[in-house]
């Protein structure tokens, strides 16, 4: 499923697809720490049960989401911020862009952080707004 999603991205969104193909796929289902997917910038960690529960188009969104953290250098820009809130802010920004650009299909299997309120906001601005709430 993830290979199919990456191939679809290469044809339909070459920039995103090229980056997606650079991440090494790592199945961590049996390790128990990842219920969906994650990245460290070099690896695409995934839960195979979650991946298999999604359509190919939703997997395109999933792959796009994780590589979005790489594209927007969220690992490098966290500074001394709370990592959980910073990740949430990044999720809002990435998910909005994926939806706007029609990269895959929005995932509905789990609740994702997606709010039109954050259209065209920076991750830093979203982070500050989340902390105010």
Question: Could you explain the architecture of this structure?
Answer:
The chain has a three-stranded mixed beta sheet with strand order 1-3-2. The radius of gyration is 14 Å and the shape is globular. The chain starts with a helix and ends with a helix. The protein is mainly alpha-helical and 133 residues long. The protein has helices at 2-12, 14-20, 48-52, 56-71, 74-77, 83-100, 123-132; strands at residues 24-27, 37-39, 43-46. It is 53% helix and 8% strand. Helix 1 (2-12) runs antiparallel to helix 2.
Concise overview:
The chain is mainly alpha-helical. The chain contains 7 helices and 3 strands.
Structural shape = globular
Low-confidence stretches: none
- Count helical runs: 7
Secondary structure category: mainly alpha
Largest sheet: 3 strands, mixed
> How many angstroms separate the termini?
37 Å
Number of β-strand runs: 3
Global Rg: 14 Å
Arithmetic mean pLDDT: 96
Pattern of helices and strands: HHEEEHHHHH
Query: Going across the major beta sheet, what is the strand order?
Result: 1-3-2
Tell me roughly what share of residues is in helical segments. Answer: 40-55%
How much of the sequence is in beta strands?
5-15%
